[in-house]
What does this fold into?
Amino acid sequence: MNNHALITTDNLIKKFPVGKGWFTALNKINLTINEGEFCGLVGPSGSGKTTLLNIIGSLDIPTEGDAHVLGQSISGLTIKKAAALRNHHLGFIFQTYNLLPVYTVYENVELPLLLLKMSANERKKAVLQSLEWVGLLDKIKSRPAQLSGGECQRVSIARAMVKQPKLVLADEPTANLDAKNSHNILKTMEKLNSELKTTFLFATHDEKVIQYLQRKISLDDGRVVSDESTSSH
Amino acid sequence: MLALKLAYRNLMGAKLRTWLNMIVLSFAFLVIIWNKGILNGWDQEARRDTIEWEIGGGQYWHENYDPYDAFTIEESHGKISDATQNAITQGDLTPILISQATIYPEGRIQTVSLRGIDPEQKLLLMPTVNLESDMEEIPAMIGHRSARNYKLNIGDFVTVRWRDINGTFDAKEIQIVHIFKTNVSTLDNGVVWIPIDRLQDMMQMENEATILVTSQESGSIGSINGYEFKDHYFLLTEIREMIEMKSVGGSIMFIILMSLSMLAIFDTQVLSIFRRQKEIGTHIALGMTQRQVVALFTIEGAMHSILAAILAAVYGAPLLYIQAVNGWKMPSGTDDFGMTIAEIIYPAYSVGLVVGTTLLVLITTTIVSYIPSRRISKMKPTDAIRGKIQ
It folds into this structure.
């Protein structure tokens, strides 16, 4: 495995039971994603983007083949080890933000740090830093219902970034946002990528996102059909 | 600790839903404690009154005596030995002689239990000192229930008719010298108390007794020929069984209240797990295992009972305290029920009662919260994140 490779997949196959048969969502995927990349899995609905993202995020396991994330085999992870991998090294950004509605912005961002059992002082410092990155310091006491969609997604980015993970997985992060908010969000993520060297992996079919990607891995019918690096936006 | 913190945060965030559950549960808490407190208070008062007024440290019964069989009364008397007399003199025992008689208040025939007791006895709270008299008529005292039933007042004369040891009928006038008030109805209903020496004369049972009551300090003083010792456990059987019966009634109310509370919490949990699938998925994505999420939701449900206990303490403690101080006045006529019951029952709350009730509710709530939470462990995280109903 390459020293700089953060993610590698080796003939990765994922099948789902459908009726009496099986549906192949991912078919022999071989990929390497290095540290610090700002890349995306692109393709139409059903092409296997989210499935691959879930496997890389240790939320699912391959049917055949394997994926290695930060040197750890996803197939070989126990439930506890998979949770620890997510807890320590991965950040998630979801299409529908997935913020906890009864928590304030501050509490939502603080949650991953509570799971890491950080001290209160360290938590406070990290949360405020993270909210500063996304420009939401004035909303720390607001609840998700009081925020716009763009603000919610920025909270979601702050939550993903608060523990400064090696890898952030973003599944259709702009699908529910208008063009202006999408650009703001992407600029924020691009800035975090360049400043903190955090690897970002997107699953998207949104052209607005695609134009920001430094590397575009196209999927169709569960196969990689192209893998091209582009110039920075 | 983390689960507790998150559970508390979730509950506080849920606001109205949490408050509703807490209020219902806190009400259940209070009613359970109040109900148990009342029964405990009644039990304690009934035992204390019965011991102080009737049974002392236990009683020696003549071997033939059976209070539930009137036909045994004629044969239930025995000589008081010298050793027993010494114990009486020392204040360790006091004798009671029991016989059956008939009185004729206002010309009506009433069967009574005629009991002789030493007017100078100090073992029982019975105001027997009122029987000390040199008058020719027989001085008698009765309880206020009998006085009401027989329409007798202090100073009234009433004819009493009895059959002596030889089976010969005789009759005399007794004069009511005192009417006493007691919570122990068995000393009152249908009982006429006269000095024991007068009854022994009337019955021709010189130096004989049916019951020997011991002092609370001495209790049993060893075996007495012809008598059997009856301890508190035996003599308080009726009270114990009555309280146990009432406790069953209280338990039914407790089960109904608990069921309602638990149903509310169960529904909340089921609804939570159904509505909060995204949240469950998010927790897993952030690094929790399914078991940790199950624990979080279980603690969240169980925490309702802790918060309810705090709420119950806030508004319930003053209410329970006021009731403990002022007591609960029993309705008129309650003392005619034939059981030992005070006019005012003062609830008795113990640390054991409060802690026991809290633990019981906590354990039940935890179980009820855990059952629906188990579903989380079967959820696919990838579906939960999307809020896909599973």
Notes: Chain B has eleven helices and 13 strands. The radius of gyration of chain B is 31 Å. The longest strand of chain B covers residues 169-180. Residues 2-52+238-385 of chain B form one domain.
